[in-house]
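Support request, please re-run this one:
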Amino acid sequence: MGCCGGGCCCGGAHGESDGVSAKIFKILSSGPALALGGLSLVASFVLIGKGCAHGGGEIHWYDPAFVAVVVCGLPLLRAAVHALVRERKIRSTLLISAAMIACLAIGQVFAAGEVAFIMALGEKLEDWTVDRAKRGLHKLVSLVPKMARKVVTCPKCRAKGMLFQDIPVQNVKVGDGLVIRNGETIPVDGVITAGETTVDQSTMTGESEPIAKKVGDEVYSGTYNRLGEITIRATKLGDDSTLQKLVKMVAAAESKQAPMQRVADKWAAILVPVSLSIAVLTFLGCWAILGDVHTALVRGVTIMVVFCPCALALATPTSVMAAIGQATKHGVIIKSGEALEKMGAVTLALFDKTGTLQEGDHLRAGAAETVAALKASGVRSLMISGDHEEIARRFAAEAGVDDFKYECLPEDKSRIVEEHQAKGSRVMMVGDGVNDAIALKLADVGIAMGGMGTDIAQEYADVSLVTDDLTKIPYLRRLSVACVKLIKTNIAISMTINAVAILCSIFGVLGPVSGALVHNVGSVLVVLNGALLYDRKFD
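Re-run finished. Output below.
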């Protein structure tokens, strides 16, 4: 923040001031501060009564609710000013701050504190939902050991034997031999060169049972060796490991807004000035009809309290994050909320044959089951193959696809995607190789095979299957449909509650205190409803 890159004393002073300010607001936004604000409201209610009984512009400076105004209200006010001045954007925090200040102006200290407290509580609930959605991934990252047991060369005989050296994981190189004993976590991706075991991959892939592993099988960093000692040859390290790719993809997904979320944000920005206008009109109308300035002020302020589009703004992100978190638990990495939304609207699934429907000279396990499940949900399927017609026809029959294309070149796959999109189909492309990359990118939803798939295929795809389990695709579609339905339900709930609350505020049924409670019921319902998606069971 300092001038000249912090090289002058003025810049240093500003930097120090900003640092102190940041620390203060971090404390005010903490859980203990929120608890203190809640206790102050309870004390205000007990000591003063209903809190809103006093008014007429008179402020009771001894009211404990002032604590809630300070610890919960100042962070909201700061966020509103920052968005307005620095970002030139109108946020919902601006309306809440205006309502809080208006409550204070008419002597409604309890109402001002309650508005600030419930808004801060809503933010904490949202943070809790997002953190819960990330919990499985964070747990996996924390389980990765910092040290690895490397098989080293005997200095005398120059032959590899039972001589080990514990080294930091970051010092492991591709090709190094590593020993993993019973009960230890596998430090890097690798291939088993000696021994047999079972590996618990549930945190990464969602597989409920440990998987038997033998010589030649792949193992992943962060998974748990359940039985037996194995030696592996390191194949992928650091950012190239399966685990770190998952971490980066999930992090990227969190930063990408879904289309419905962008629409909700736009509506939130529009509703703020609209609500201020309605509040002013309500005040003027009530003053003219009732002839009581204080009553008119109370109703206008209540409009500002109940009109805030917080629930609308929370409806999409909480549901999307919960869905992405659940998918991650089941070995499906969704890169964006947009891909999640589009998956539920897919009408045609295009499958590459080799490496996708086909595994070795055979049909991949679960391929026919996946095609049948998609067909039952209204999604047609088409197989694309570079083989001759006879071979392609045989695999198409075994998989049960509706149609197939044969002797296709890489460019043909892209053309097929675009042709079906031009006909109005919502296309999903499933592939694994470099020759699928462009088709994966062009499709409405691109799904890459994560285990056998190439890096470029995974980079161009919207979704990655960690274990190449095709049966995860119907699950993903059901998750998408459930997520979109939940978002729409949450939006309907929030808008209905707001509409009823506005009418009640205009006619004086609700005051600032009761209005804050009713309004924030919508926010809490939306957050909790979205959080439930994280643990929902899908067949």
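Residues 332-468 form a domain with the Rossmann fold fold (CATH 3.40.50.1000). Residues 1-17, 51-56 have pLDDT under 50 and may be disordered.
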